[in-house]
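FAQ

Q: What does a record look like?
A: Structure on top, sequence underneath. For example:
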């Protein structure tokens, strides 16, 4: 699979901690509010900044969701591994019980 090309801005966001990402989200939401206010009052010079900011907010929310899903997936893997260990131990115990029963029958 070819290596994905990522923009430096997206890499910067990916390298932020959860707290820093939440702070960045808050900052972008405040910026969007200011841009909309300036647009209504006809003080906004670059109207393209509004959709750009909305996309930045969407990127941040997507990264936050990816992180949550990664934690959930890891928990599910750990639970599946634990269940598999329990099944293996139960199967081993059952085999040992049958061996003991067979040995008991041979003694009689």
């Amino acid at each position: 699979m070819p290596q994905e090309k990522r923009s430096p801005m997206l890499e910067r966001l990916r390298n932020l901690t959860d707290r820093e990402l939440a702070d960045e989200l808050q900052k972008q939401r405040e910026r969007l509010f200011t841009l909309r206010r300036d647009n209504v009052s006809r003080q906004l010079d670059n109207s393209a900044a509004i959709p750009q900011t909305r996309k930045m907010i969407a990127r941040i929310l997507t990264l936050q969701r990816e992180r949550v899903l990664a934690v959930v997936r890891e928990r599910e893997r750990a639970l599946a591994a634990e269940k598999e260990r329990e099944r293996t131990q139960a199967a081993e115990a059952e085999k040992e019980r049958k061996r003991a029963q067979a040995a008991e029958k041979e003694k009689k």
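Q: Is there anything notable about this one?
A: The mean pLDDT is 91.
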